[in-house]
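Subgroup meeting minutes
Present: P.N., E.W., G.H.
Scribe: E.W.

1. P.N. recapped why we're keeping a running log of single-chain structure predictions: easier to compare across weeks, and new members can see raw inputs and outputs side by side.
2. G.H. added today's entry (686 aa).
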Amino acid sequence: MRKRQAAMVLGLALLASAGCAPGDISRYAARAQQAGEVIFEGKTTEAMAAAATAAAAETIAREDAAAGETAAESAAAAASQAGTEETAASVPEETAEAAGSAENSAAERAELPALMEQVPREAQDALARKGEDFSGKLAGRDILSRAEQGALEAVLRQEDYGDDMLCLQEMARYSEGNESFLLVFESTPLTARQRVQGDLWFYDGQTARKLLDDTVFEKMERADGPGAPFLLLETEQDRHRSAMVYTVSEGQARSWFEGAAEAELVPEGLCVSYPADYFQYDPLVKEWADAGEGALVPGFYARTQEGFEPLQTRELSAQEYLAYLQPGEGDAEGQAFLEAQEELFYTPSDETADYAYRFFAVGENRVGWRLRRTGLPENGGIDHAVAEYSYAFYELKDGRLTADAVSVGGRGFWFQDPSRAEEELLELSELPPSLQGNRLDRAGELRPAEQGALERIRSVRQYPEDALCFVSAADFDRDGRTEVFAAVGSYDGAFGAAVCDFWCVGDGEPQLLLENRPVRELQTVESGAQSAVLLRGFSLAGVRDLLYTAWDNVPARLLDTAGRIEPQDGGSLKAWPVAGGVPGYFFLQDGQAPEYGLEEIPAKTILEYDNGEAVYRSLLRRADGGTEGLFCLRRANGMLHVSLREAGGTFYETYEVRDRMLVLTDSGEGGYSAGETGEQETEEEN
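Output recorded in log:
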C-alpha cells in the first residue's frame, strides 16, 4: 500500500516537473524525493533517480530533437534535472561530463521573470480570449526546448524585464537555422483589457535584436505556407491598425508592406490591405481624398524566395469577366447573380453620373473589377463633380464565379501593385481613343475659321501641342460674321474627362469665359433664326450644362438658372432649374432664350385626341378626387402638362401631340402652373 502511495506521489511530482519552466525542475524533484524517503523509509534514492531520469530525458529529447540537438545533449540535460549524484552515476561518463558543463553554464544564465516561470490562470485565460490571433509558445506555460530557452535568455541578457512580464515565442527554420521572434509583454494590460503591449525581438541563433518597442499588438501569427515560414503582425497606435510581415534572410529579419493596415493568408499567398488613401479625386484642385476611417483596399501577393511579389494581373473585357459566371441548369441563385452583374456593368451613364468599369483576373483564382463613378459625390460636402472609385474581387471555385464566392469590396482605388501607386495613377492619363481626334496638334483637320481661332487663343495663352480642344464655329446671330467658341485644356485621367478653359473668339481679342471646367463636349444648337453652343460638362454648384450664344459679336450666357439642358427635336430646349422642380421648355430669339408660354385648359380637352379617352380614364383612376385632382396646361409649342394630386403627393405627365395622338414624353414629381409666362407667343407662331 505504501509503495502505491509512493508511486502516486512520484508521478504527481514528475507530472508537475514536466509542466514547469526549464531550469526549475530540481525544485519539484526534491519535493518528490522527500515524500519518497518517508514512504520508502529512506530507500528511495535509486527509484527516484531512475524515474526522474527516464521522464525528463523523454521530454527534453522530444523538444530538443525539434530544435536539432543531439541525443547525448538530451541525456545530459536529464541527468542535470534529476538533481542527484545517483542520477549522474547512472549515465555514461561522457554524458555526465556534459551535464556538469551544462550546470556550470546554467549559473551564467539570465534569471527568468516570475511570470515566465509559471503563468497565472487569469493571464492564460485573457490570452486565450484573443483567439487565433496569437500563436507561439508561452514561457511558463509551454515547455521550451533548449534552443528556445537560449533565445529567451539572449533577450533577457540585453534588457532587464520585471516580474510581471510574459513571453510568446515563435521559433522555426525561417532561413538557414532555427531563428525566433519573441514578444515580451506586460501581464497587467493583458488581464485587465486583453491588451497585448510590449516589445518584439528577433533572435538569429546567437544574439537578439529588438524590432519594435512598447507596441500594442493585435496579432502575431506564424505562416507555414509554400516557401520559408514568415511572421504576420498587426499593431495599433493612436487607434490606427498597422500590419507587418517579417521574413528572414541570411540571419536578418526584414519587414514588408510598409503602411499596410491588415494582412491575412489567402489560397494563393497573402492579402495585404491598405488604407483607402485614394478614393475621391477633385479635378478642380487635382487632389485625392481618402474613403474615411476603416476603408481598406487589398493587394494580393505570392511568396517568393526573395520575399513577396504581386500576383500576376491581366485585364479582362466585360464579356470575359461575365464568362466566369456560368450558372448550372436549375441554379436560380446563380442565374439571379449573373443577371444582377450584367445589369450593373451594362447600366449606361445617366444624368447624375458617368460609370466606367475595368475588369481584372488576379492570379489563377480571383477575378474582380474597379469602378470610376464621375458625378456629384455621394456623401455630399462638395458642390461639383468628382471621381469616386470602388472595387470588388471574388475567389473562383473550380474556375467559376458563383453567387456564394468569397469576396472583398468597398470604397477606394484598387492598384494592381500598391508599391507602384503613383506610376499607376500616371498611367491613367493615357488619352482614350475617343478623344484622340480632339488633340490640338491635329487641328489641321479643322476648318480655317476654327484653326485661326485656336492660333489666336494660343497667342494669348500657351498650351502644349498635345492639349485637347473642342471647337464650335457658326454665325450665331446671323449677321454674316463667324464666331468661334473653343474649350482648350488637357485630359485628367483620374477624373476621366478633359478639364479646359472656355474661350470665345470674334472680331476682337479672344475672351476667356471660364477656367478649369470639366468638359464632355461642345454641341451647336440651332433654334429659329439663331444658334447657340451647349457646353456639356459635369456639375459645378448644381450646374452641369452651359448655354452660350454670340449676339452683336458679344458672347452671352443663356438659361443661367438652369442646371441641366437637353436639346429637343424641332429646336426647343428642355432645361431643369438648379433649385429643383419640373423642367421648362425654351427657344432662342433675339439673343435670348425665352420659355414657351403656358395656358390653362379644361382636363376634358384631352378627350379631343384620338387616344384621349384612354389617357383620360387612366389619369382619373390615379387622381385623388377625380377631375378635381387634375390640372392641365398647354404650351405654346403644343405640349400638354397634366398635374395630378395623389395620396403620395403631386406628380406630372407631359405629352407631345403627334398625328392627333398624345405621346407621353416625361413624368416625375411636382406640378406645373401657368406662372408669369401666361400667353407668351413665339415669332414662329405669329
